[in-house]
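YM 10:42: PB1 domain-containing protein sequence, as discussed on the call
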Amino acid sequence: MSGRRSAKLLVIVSEDDSRKLLLPDGIPESVDELVEKVREACGLKGKFRLQYQDKDFGDVFVNLTNTGELQSLCTLKIIPLPDEESFTVQTNDGTQSNDDTLSSFGSGDTDDTIILSPPGSETVSTRNQQWPKEFNIPRFSYDTELQLERGNSLFKANGTRLTVAPKMKSDILEKICDEIYKYKSYPSSANFCEVSEALIKKHPCLAEKGSFNGCYGWTQRFKMKMGNLRTQLKGLGCPEFLANSLKTKASDNAFPAKNVKRPKRGEANHIPSVPAGVSSENLETERLALLKEVKKRNNACTIREKMTKTFALRRREVVENQPSVQELQERWPALFQQEEVEPVISFKVQVIKHEFTVV
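YM 10:58: structure's back
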C-alpha cells in the first residue's frame, strides 16, 4: 500500500458536521478497513455504514460495498445503524453527541423512515390510519345506546329482534359512516361487509330476519349513506371529491361513473386539503423555492420540510392533471431523490405486510 497515492475524503458525520479525512497511504482496499479509519478519525462509537456519492446516478448517496468505487476528493456519509449501544460522535470540542442528535439527518438515512408533517399542515380530511383488522363500532347517541342495550338483552333472552325506528337508524348510519371516512372515502364492498358484520356482532339485536348473513340490508344502507356523505362533502368544497365532479372532467369523460379518481392501494391521503391559513399561491412559492434548494449540497432536511409542506399541491397536480414523468421531474425534481423514494418504498412494504396480516 506504500506505493499508492494519498487521498482526501469528505466525511459527512451529521447534518451540520462535515470533516476532512486524510489518508496518506491511499484509500484502503476493503470497506472494513475504511470504516475503521473513519471511526478512528471521527471518534465514532457504535455501528454504522458508509455511503458515497455515485456519479452514475446523479451524485445520490448509495451504500459503499467496494472501495474501488472511491477516488480522492469523494464524499462519504455516515449512516448510524441500530445497536445495543448508543451511536456517539466525538465532536471537535471533545464532547460527545448521541444518535438522538443525528435523528434528523436525512429522511432516507436510516432503515426505518418516518415522515412527520410540520405543525399546522394537517387538516380535518387528513388520514393517518389504515383500514383496521377489526372495525370498531363507535358509540351512538345516549337514547340509541339505551335502546340497543335493552334490545341486546331481549335478544339473548328469547331471540327477539329490535325494531329500528327511523331516528335511531339515521343515528347509526351517520356515526358509522363518519367512522368509515376516517379510513377510506371509497370503501370496497368487502369493507362494507366487514362493518355490517361488526355491527351485528356488537349488537345482535340488529340482525335482519331473512338475510343470508343477517346484515345484508345494513351493508346496502351503508353504501347509500357513504354516497350521500361524499355528495355533501363535495358541495362543501372537499378537493378529494371535487376531482370527480363533472365540471372538472374533460368533455369526453363527462360522465358520473367514468374516470373516477379514487385512492390506490396504500394511499392514505388521496387529495388532501390545503392546510388552514395557507393558499395555493403560498404553496407555489414554496415549490419555486424548492427548485433552488435541490441544487444545494447536504440540504436534505430543508428539502424534506418543503416537500412535506407542498404535499397537498403536489398530490392535486398528480391526480387531476396526470402529468408525464418528464413534466413531474421538471416541476418536482426532489421527488426523484433517494431521500424521497426510500420512504415511499418503505411505506408500500408496510402496506403489503398489513394486508397479508389482515387476510
